[in-house]
């Protein structure tokens, strides 16, 4: 399967992202040399909704999945609040990494 995954890389324009409409005439990105080593870059996100809850179990689970602690964005915020600053920061970091390393996959990992 890993061999098949390398063959299935689909090039997408850098300005494409979730929730963005497709615009005709958008140039495709430059092709990536198949011999370029690719690596998965993992970013983590952990959240709990009350001050009494602890993030430790989620941080441990993310560490087991290969997400280093310095790449985990975490916050204690209610589920009723729609704007989550640390989640938005995680998405922004993923986009920035992808812009600088287009040949690598950026994986945002959440425990729940």
Automatic annotation (TrEMBL):
Region of interest (Disordered), ranges: 1-39
One protein family per Pfam: Resolvase
Domain of life: Bacteria
Biased amino acid composition, Pro residues: 24-34
Stored Gene3D superfamilies: Resolvase, N-terminal catalytic domain
Resolvase/invertase-type recombinase catalytic domain sequence ranges: 41-112
Protein name: Recombinase family protein
């Amino acid at each position: 399967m890993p061999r098949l995954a390398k063959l299935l890389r689909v090039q997408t324009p850098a300005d494409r992202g979730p929730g963005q409409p497709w615009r005709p005439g958008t140039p495709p990105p430059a092709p990536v040399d198949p011999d370029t080593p690719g690596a998965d870059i993992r970013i983590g996100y952990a959240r709990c909704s009350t001050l009494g809850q602890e993030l430790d179990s989620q941080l441990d689970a993310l560490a087991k999945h290969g997400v280093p602690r310095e790449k985990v964005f975490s916050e204690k915020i209610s589920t009723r609040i729609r704007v989550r600053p640390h989640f938005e920061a995680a998405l922004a970091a993923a986009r920035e990494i992808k812009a600088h390393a287009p040949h690598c996959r950026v994986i945002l990992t959440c425990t729940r």
